[in-house]
Amino acid sequence: MIFEALIASICISLISLIGVFFFGNKGYMTGTHRFMLPIAVGVFLGIIFFELIPETFEASPQWGAFTILGGFFGFYLFSHILDTYHHHHFDNTDDCYRDGASRLLIGGAIHNFADGVIVATAFMANPLLGMITAFGIALHEIPQEIAKFSVLIHSGYSRTKATFYNFLSATTVIVGTLVTLVFSTSLTSHLFLLTGISAGNLLYIATTDLIPELRENHKQHFTQTFVATLFGVALIGLLTQLTHHFLIPL
User: Fold this and answer.
1) How many domains is the chain partitioned into structurally?
2) N or C: which end of the chain has fewer CB within 10 A?
3) pLDDT tens, 12-27?
4) pTM exceeds 0.70 for this model
């Protein structure tokens, strides 16, 4: 479980390098945004409602709702304090092009640390759930990292520096995974805290960041993005049912 979680977090951090290959090709960016992002939304929603929320309430019927709400509002407040904006698209009017690159990197590092906590929590619950969660986070990260790379370039960073700093910011997902795994023994009896907070965190990302992003930038492709989101939910629902009936109970 530890090895698999670390491998997954390393793979997620390596996605930050993808901007080098896609930067400058807006067609590729539009394609990844239109299809990968809604699938990621569906995967997140499936993980939240089929796995993390049931796991949380099963472990603690009394406090489960509070941990989920705590994760949601905690991340809401945290994002507001940091004044962080998650970039999934090119926007030439964005203030981050002028003076927000450093803030973007810091906010990205904190966000990636939270992703690491989510990945580790999922693997602690069940390795299959961990792999599915890592897959969803990876889909979410691809367009985000491409756009972040663009922001750094437009802020005056060289391609080498933009690649290095973006990758450095992304490695905090590994730190988040390691920290969670190190303290996993003492948290075993309180795993519902991690699953609940993770559920609230993912719910915040999906509903306040990703879905509004899709509605704003792909109104003319609503049917495609809606179907892709349903596909992501159905995929997790199917895997959950197969797991419960034929594999290891989650």
Assistant:
1) 1
2) N
3) 999 888 877 765 545 4
4) no
